[in-house]
Amino acid sequence: NKDKDEIDALEKRISDGIQFITPPVRFSELAISTKTLKGLEDAHFLELTDIQKCALPIALSGLDILGAAKTGSGKTLSFLVPILERLYRSKWTRFDGLGALVLSPTRELALQTFEVLRNIGRNHGLSAGLVIGGKDLKSEQEAISRMNILVATPGRLLQHMDQTTVFEWSQLKVLVLDEADRILDLGFAKTVDAIVKALPKERQTMLFSATQTDSISALARLSLRDPVVMSVHAQQ
Ligand code: ADP
Ligand code: MG
């Protein structure tokens, strides 16, 4: 039953936290499902990058993250693995609606993230959708209500929140703001604020940004709760 699952999940989080006082080197050392591990290994992801070593143990324990790391450091898996694991641990099914949302600044970046998700998440029975506009709204509208994980650009997502009556997000568990500095540079500050304000408060949020500015701090204050702040610099 649901209560017992919650308690089991909590106990698992506590034990995860204790287990990883030393950083993991390989994905196989993480407390993750064999479905995810197989997805990673089949895609030849074996060892963690520095940001993944910092972010994954924290994110897998359910805490919020404010992460600074440069492009190419491996941020995508730092949030996709925790998303898959959060839904897996909650025994999420196709019928449970939207569980996780990733906001990306551009269509191209959203597509790249979506493809990594499809690749490493293939062993889970979850549905994932890309919401980036370009196609007609109607065909997206029909699919969007069935998705468990969405990778979206902010403008198009807010359009669906306003106009797609069957779209429902009240059960959302994980929000990711990827490349948040670029999202703000592209003029999406108000859009993202509106999205964040509409989402359930009880959720995990991960915000990644290459730079730390006042506007990122403001977004962090709005969207994160007691985040673990991490900054990982150049060298691997
Ligand atoms: P970022 O989002 O920080 O710019 P990405 O997540 O896009 O970085 O990763 C950059 C590149 O590194 C990609 O080509 C990705 O496939 C690769 N990569 C990421 N994590 C790993 C890993 N653990 N092992 C090997 N390659 C990785
Ligand atoms: Mg990235």
Automatic annotation (TrEMBL):
Motif residue range(s): Q motif: 25-53
Domain Helicase ATP-binding residue range list: 56-230
Annotated compartments: Nucleus, Nucleolus
Domain DEAD-box RNA helicase Q: 25-53
Stretches assigned to coiled coil: none
Its biological purpose: RNA helicase.
Swiss-Prot/TrEMBL domain comment: The Q motif is unique to and characteristic of the DEAD box family of RNA helicases and controls ATP binding and hydrolysis.
Similarity field: Belongs to the DEAD box helicase family.
Protein name as catalogued: ATP-dependent RNA helicase
Organism phylogeny: Eukaryota, Fungi, Fungi incertae sedis, Cryptomycota, Cryptomycota incertae sedis
Residues of the full protein shown: 26 to 261 of 702
